[in-house]
Amino acid sequence: MEFNVKRDGLNLAGIYEPAEHPNGTIAILMHGFTGNRGYDASALLVQLATRLRAVGVGTVRFDFNGHGHSDGAFVDMTVPNEIADAQAVLAAVQTRLAPQHIDLLGHSQGGVVASMLAGYQADVIHKLVLMAPAATLKDDAIAGHTRGLVYDPHHIPATLPLSDSLTLGGFYLRTAQLLPIYETAQAFTGPVCLIHGDADQIVDPLASKRYHDVYQHSVYHLLPGASHRLDGQARETVLDLATHFIQP
């Protein structure tokens, strides 16, 4: 069913899928940079949601601002305003669904958002799963190279052409350079599952290793041959690891 949320005048397009035999846990799933909540059966978040519901965990997926069916322009998207999106969805889950436990699962940039939101809401979040979390986005912005773009990190332009159809806002990069990713994330002291592929060409697995170093209760799975998309033969392993970790 639709689970749309308003954040600062923007409509965030979400979907709530309850478990047939609910156990009191709701998982909020977050997609990555240029992605969406998943609209076909092959999407990682769709497959995760299906597996989680089978073990009694209801799921909420949503499109961040400027992505998918949500309001906003991609050029205005930043990690801080994606955190604001996620916080609005979290608050809606608390008030509308009132679950016993809330877990967060994020892929790529969605993993960064999930990790920081869990740090801010450490007393609210129960468990956290980070899949190829793109914390290197800060390092990339400082170095002046992001997803194929090359720019002067000390004089970032207002906009940069990411592709024929997408324009990245310079403010995204300016905020990325100063994000306190690990400092915020480590405030969460609950259970964390980290999953990364050793063949990831977009986010160095070192990002997950750094998370593992700052968390108090984390497990780190480095998957041989897995890419950033965690697809192919690795997909079933990812689904198994995440579901087993979230399952009560």
From TrEMBL:
This protein's UniProt keywords: Hydrolase
GO molecular function: hydrolase activity
Pfam families: Hydrolase_4 (PF12146)
InterPro entries xref list: AB_hydrolase_fold, AB_hydrolase_sf, Hydrolase_4
Serine aminopeptidase S33 domain mapped to chain residues: 28-140
SUPFAM superfamilies on file: alpha/beta-Hydrolases (SSF53474)
Protein name per Swiss-Prot or TrEMBL: Alpha/beta hydrolase
Organism encoding this protein: Levilactobacillus angrenensis
